[in-house]
Amino acid sequence: xxxxxxxxxxxAPESPVQPAPAGKLRILVVxxxxxxxxxxxIVLRRDGYDVALAQNGHEAIQQLQAGPFDMLLSDxxxxxxxxxxxxxxAKSLDPQxxxxxxxxxxxxxxxxxxxxxxxxxxxxxxxNMDELRLKVRQHLxxxxxKRENLLLKRALKSRHEFxxxxxxxxxxxxxxxxxxxxxxxxxxxxxxGESGTGKELVARAVHFNSLRRDRPFVAVNCGAMxxxxxxxxxxxxxRGAFTGAHASKKGLMEVAEGGSIxxxxxxxxxxxxxxxxxxxxxxxxxxxxGGTDEVxxxxxxxxxxxxxxxxxxxxGRFREDLFYRLNVLSIQVPPLRERAEDIQLLAEHFLxxxxxxxxxxxxxxxxxxxxxxxxxxxxxxxxxxxxxIERAVxxxxxxxxxxxSLPDEVRLGRxxxxxxxxxxxxxxxxxxxxxxxxxxRGEDFYRHYIALALxxxxxxxxxxxxxxxxxxxSFRYYVKxxxxx
Length: 485
Known about the structure:
Blueprint: E1 4-5, E2 26-30, H1 34-46, E3 50-54, H2 57-66, E4 71-75, H3 83-93, E5 98-103, H4 108-116, E6 121-124, E7 127-128, H5 129-163, H6 170-183, E8 189-192, H7 199-208, E9 217-221, H8 227-235, E10 236-237, E11 249-250, H9 252-255, E12 260-264, H10 271-283, E13 285-287, E14 294-296, E15 300-305, H11 309-314, H12 320-326, E16 329-332, H13 343-358, E17 364-365, H14 367-375, H15 381-395, E18 400-401, H16 408-411, H17 438-456, H18 461-468, H19 472-481
Parallel strand pairs: 2-3, 2-4, 4-5, 5-6, 8-15, 8-16, 9-12, 12-15, 17-18
Antiparallel strand pairs: 1-7, 10-11, 13-14
């Protein structure tokens, strides 16, 4: 049974409307009439809400500023301040607040203004209390679900950013722990490590696990552009600052406002740009190229380098004051060769990724191929491993990656950045000089041991392949290549 509430109502009606399941959501009721405030307090508390009361607009604004509310339920006409002004302040403090307006003096003008400012509904006194309760519950449930959805997205995004940095090794557990610790601060972070170790992934994980996660993450490669272009990219420029600057342009520092900016290869930054970056870190402001006005910079700087910055400082190639400003918090990413227990995990992850992308049925890595991966030095770290698996998946014709699908440097045990080791079947190092043929030496090595294995296996190729730890398919390939019987 529904009941209408007049301006002088003093008792709460019974109603079949179910209590809200949302727990202690907070509602601020603003009305200059005591009986209406008390009526709404009784009814809404019975439905499970935490209700605060304000008798005028100024008191309402003080409460809104003091603590968050999920809903504003305000009268429009009050002696000191209009409810529309209260609504305007509430929306400026929390754009997502649910707002209902009440009035005994309905007018199209005030209704339109309230709706324009974001009020979801407009009740004319006396109104049906059950209708109000139902709408309060519906809109607060929607707000609650949106908030839960946002938190879930944040959690999933955070997990995704951590999941993209794979590692079970003790060294990587230290990295994960450090990321979680520094993410909750606002200090500058310096990520160090060899090329290909995943420094940008670490920087992203710091950002997406911080309070800035809902603001932009902007990455800049300091070594990929000349000094004048880098300054324009970072700080922006005004119209006419240089030839071709036909319009003013925001820099990436402004694009990242409220978020994080990732400065990769910070060791490559020119000295004059180091001075300008230092000012941003010290004063949190900068000037656009060619401009005179200062721009505030609310942005967290995460820098990365594969160079020895302390040595560069001692050699005068990097500013000492900037180094200490950047190195407030540091994360050292270990090279892949120092966490060999992660190689199989990473390889299988890349295998699944590239097999899905290429639509291939490659599902596993053979034992010999995996052993080659484990034995390789990986001078290019995770990036080199990723490229090796991509190549192997592209070339492999079976469901299992075989050694011959791996790059030569992995199969032959050498790094693309290091000289190849030459081995003779006799175990002696041949003399180097004019006429030395490394490829021929390598073929001699393969031919010698494949022929030896065939001899010991009595010509049985399957057994010979087992003696060498090779797949039969790979062994047969070399037998045919070297015309062995």
